[in-house]
Amino acid sequence: MKYTVKDLQSDFPDDAACLQWLVEYLYPNGITCKTCGEVTQHYKIAGRKVYSCGHCGRHVSPTAGTIFHKSHTPLTLWFHAIYLMSTNKAGTSAKQIERELGVTYKTAWRMMHQIRKMMATPDDSLLAGEVEVDETYIHPNVYKRSSARRNYGRDARRKGEILFGIVQRGGGVRVWHVKTAGARILRPLIEANVKYGAVVHTDGWQAYRTLPRLGYDHRTTEHGIGEYVTADSYTQNIENVWSHFKRGIKGVYRHIGKEYIQAYANEYAWRYSNRKRANMFWALMCRLNK
Q: Which helix (H) or strand (E) holds 18?
């Protein structure tokens, strides 16, 4: 059953409810006082997001180590922003956060980038089975100004910023903003993230030609001659990731800085990887202290 805004408002009607959930999530067995060296009874300090040890008086801040640390923005607004970013498939702009939450654009922009840091928590597990590998070229402002289109072309092919991605069929995806699409850059990423012996599907880009020597079952489709699907190979899943990301730039964000491309890519990669979860909001909330 989908988790709706109505459910969110019912579960977290005020900051007190948000803080109480945060305490229960971070300290399921009770708060351990660093001075006393054991779990002790703690009491909420009125007007602050802080708890005090009932034995020695040492303060503990549940927001420390989370994206809420030292933020004056109410927790209810933070939770609402997390809900919007985790559930909106096409992405959410800072202007939309500004309008819906009633905060300044600067605050909305900062909140979104803090939430993207949660989405970027690395996963050390190796992708296995059948994976698809591909690179794509984008320009973060290609659709906004005619000069950008003139310099980079409609799809920024061979001239724009480069994204490299690996998707496990039926599973998650990992994306990197890379300097070049050469074998020296792409091959180490494949070796570090794809299990030895996996079936790797790619297009005909020359950087992938050495994959069989690395112990992978390499299968290709030659896009240059109009071949996109063969009997046992295609890269449509990773291309679907690129499609969502590029349309997000065009239709939602309109323009993103080059230095933030990785952060935006992490956002789309996280949503794709968690697309089968019944409750994406709670999936993201459980990464608060990662």
A: helix 15-26
State residue 74 phi and psi, 5-degree precision.
Answer: -55, 145
Q: Would the pLDDT of 140 be above 80?
A: no
Bridge partner list, 42: 53
Determine whether 112 is exposed, middle or buried from the number of CB atoms within 10 Å of its CB (0-12, 13-18, 19+). buried
Q: Which two tokens stand for residue 168?
A: 């496990």
58-81 pLDDT per residue, tens? 999 999 999 999 999 999 999 999
Token pair belonging to 256: 């993103």
Burial group, residue 225, by CB count within 10 angstroms (0-12, 13-18, 19+) = exposed
pLDDT by residue (tens digit) across 100-123?
Answer: 999 999 999 999 999 999 998 677
Q: Which one, of 115, 84, 88, lies nearest residue 98 by Cα?
A: 84
In the block, tokens 């990423």 appear at 189
Dihedral sign, Cα of residue 20, residue 22, residue 23, residue 27: positive
Architecture of domain 130-256: 2-Layer Sandwich (3.30)
Amino acid identity of residue 24, one-letter, is E
| Strand segments (E) across 51-198 | 51-53, 59-60, 130-138, 161-168, 173-178
